[in-house]
Structures are given as C-alpha cells and as structure tokens.
Amino acid sequence: MRICFDMDGTIANLYGVEGWLDNLIAEDVRPYREAKVLLNMNSLARKLNKLQKQGHEIVIISWLSKCGSENYNEAVAEVKKAWLKKHLGSVRFDEVNIVKYGTPKSLFCKSSDDVLFDDEKPNRDNWLGSAYDVQNILEVLATL
Questions:
Q1: 23 and 76 Cβ atoms separated by less than 8 Å
Q2: Structural contact between residues 90 and 45, judged by C-beta atoms closer than 8 angstroms
Q3: What is the C-alpha separation between 138 and 38, in angstroms, rounded?
Q4: Domain boundaries, the chain
Q5: CATH superfamily placement of domain 2-142
Q6: Is the pTM of this model over 0.90?
Q7: Cα–Cα distances in Å, from 67 out to 25, 31, 57?
Q8: 95 — phi, psi (to 5°)?
Q9: pLDDT at res. 136
Q10: 115 near 3, Cβ under 8 Å?
Q11: What are the contacts of 45-54 at 24+ separation with CB within 8 A?
C-alpha cells in the first residue's frame, strides 16, 4: 500500500501565511518556507516510520505554484523538500513528487489499496483508492 500526502493545506499551512497569494504571484518562496505544520509532526513521523517498516510506501504528491516560471518552480520544489526535511526529517519518503499545478494526483495511484490525504476534493474524488480530507489524519493512519 502507498500512503500519499499532499502538502499545501494538508500537512503544511501555506494558506495561513500572511500574504501567501501575493507572494506566490510575485514568485517569492517565503510562504512555502514559513508554512507552519497542520498536525503533530512527531506523532506523524512515528506513525509513518512504523507503517513503512510494515512494508507500506510513504509518498508526497504536491503541486507547484499555479503560474510560476520554470526558475520559480525549481525554487519552490527545493523549499518544499527542505520543509519536509525540517518537519519530517526522520521519514525517508519512498517518493517525493512535486509536480506541475493541476497534474492529476490519481496518476500516482498504483493500486485500489493506496491512500491519499488531500485538502482538495477533486483530487480525492478522482483517486482510485481510499482518499481522506485533512481531518483526523493520525486517527485514519492508526487504522491502517
């Protein structure tokens, strides 16, 4: 089973950063760098490491900025990876996919057993496995 996570609005509070939209339009990576966590990352890391030891893959599927230049998108990808290292440094992700805005996340679903956590309803609706909103991530993981 692959356990997949969106970042922005799911584990990273991008939309809670003051001026986030203006910064993205201005191609400033600050909101991605300064985004606070949306859940207890120590608990999440422990659970993900346990699930990984049981044979599950841990995957990130996150979009780049909607209208970023190639250089900006490269910078965003690096900042997102740094955010993951800072907040989930003990987790060795099987994949970190930081892809063009709007890329169907269902392209990364390999089995009907795969799980997605994402704040965007269309991504959840199009997922081929089980998909969950951001509420109760830790509780859902406890059932896997």
A1: no
A2: yes
A3: 11
A4: 2-142
A5: HAD superfamily/HAD-like (3.40.50.1000)
A6: yes
A7: 7, 15, 31
A8: -150, 140
A9: 92
A10: yes
A11: 45/88, 45/89, 45/90, 45/91, 47/138, 47/141, 47/142, 48/3, 48/88, 48/91, 48/141, 49/90, 49/91, 51/3, 51/141, 51/144, 52/91, 52/92, 52/94
Per-10-residue mean pLDDT, the chain, length 144: 98 98 96 98 98 98 94 98 98 98 97 97 97 95 94
Q: Is 63 left (phi over 0), alpha (psi -120 to 50) or beta?
A: beta
- Strand-pair partners of 63: 99
Q: Token pair of 62, please?
A: 């996150």
